[in-house]
Amino acid sequence: MLREIAEYPNSFGPLGSADERIATDRYTLCMGRGKTWNTVQRQRMRTDEIDDVIEEVRSLLRERGRGRTQWEVGSSAEPPDLVERLLERGLVPDREPYAVALVLTHEPPPPPADVVAKRVETYEEYAAANAVQWEAFDMPENEIAELRPKLPQMWEETVNVMHAAWLDGEVVSAGTSSLTDHGLLLYGGATLARARGRGAYRAVLHARWQEAVANGTPALITQGGSMSRPILERLGFERVGEVHMLVDDFGQRR
Question: Is residue 92 helix, strand or coil?
Answer without folding.
Answer: strand
